[in-house]
Specification:
This protein is α+β, with helices and mostly antiparallel strands. It has one helix spanning 2-20; strands at 26-29, 32-33, 45-50, 53-58, 64-71, 76-83, 87-91, 96-104, 109-116. The longest helix has 19 residues, at 2-20.
């Protein structure tokens, strides 16, 4: 009986690992400035997507930055204000097209577009 439970556990583990390997690729996102103008701080913001996890890092002190993740149609799914320099991760549960927008205290905005696929 223990042997059977062990084998089933191993099989489930292998299935989980093979499923997880489909999402190993990591894509660096290009952070672009919006039309607001001002000093270009986009190089101080890095973002990448690994499977369903969005990782953002701020390499300079940009003050308080509002991070908003929305669908391509404009529906906000997450919004947070953070003090920089810092970083964070957010898990996006559903596939689709998304935009992450970074708004600095002076009103300057930066954004990156990305896709989560199954």
């Amino acid at each position: 009986m223990y042997k059977r439970i062990f084998l089933i556990t191993c099989m489930l583990g292998m299935m989980g690992l093979s499923y997880a390997n489909n999402y190993v690729a990591e894509d660096n996102l290009t952070v672009l400035a919006s039309k607001n103008g001002g000093d270009d701080k986009g190089s101080s913001i890095t973002a990448d997507i690994n499977g369903n996890t969005l990782t953002v890092a701020f390499s300079q002190n940009l003050g308080e930055v509002t991070v908003e993740i929305s669908t391509a149609s404009g529906a906000t799914i997450f919004c947070l204000s953070v003090q920089t320099p810092t970083g964070y991760q957010y898990f996006i549960p559903a596939s689709g097209s998304y935009v992450v927008t970074f708004t600095l205290q002076n009103g300057n905005e930066y954004y990156a577009e990305f896709v989560i696929s199954d």
